[in-house]
Amino acid sequence: MSADPDIKVTIEEVGPQKRSARYFAPLMIAKGAVGLIAGILLLFWPTAGLAVAAVALGAFLVVDGVERLVSVLRHRGSSDRSDAWSVAGALLRLILGAAVLLNPSATGQFWASFLFIIAGLNLVGASLLLFWKEPSLKDDLLATGTAILMLLLGLFMILLPLVSALVLLRILGALLVLASVPSIAVGLRSR
Prior knowledge:
Elements: H1 16-44, H2 46-74, H3 80-102, H4 104-133, H5 141-159, H6 161-190
Helix pairs in contact: 1-2, 1-6, 2-3, 2-4, 2-6, 3-4, 4-5, 4-6, 5-6
């Protein structure tokens, strides 16, 4: 066999960064795809996001309750009273987890409403405290505007907690989409 003089061979030197990028390219594509799907779901169906969070919470409570119950029953403590409290706490976790898993949508909406009402009260309280504590705010337009914005946002969260949660989930969905697209692009380019 004779060598053809017109064929040229080029040896490409692959550096450690390029090798690493090639190695992790499938993972970056998968991560980007999962983030993109989750972002689109949260952007267009935010109530599904609340239900998913509720299912995760319910599953955690059930597993935690089982683990605590087994732990208490297997390793008795020094007093029967503390064991009774531990068993009651474990059973309460199991019951609450099962209730969450049976109706995740309503539970997710309840917890989102509860948390957003608490956050709204916190914002309103901080805004009012800022006004009362600092009388010099009247001269500072930016600080006054911030305090008023905090007050209005807090009232919105108190009066419409579920709407606030759904808006926040939509914003989170948009951010996931924006963060996932570059990950997919870098993964595809690095293959």
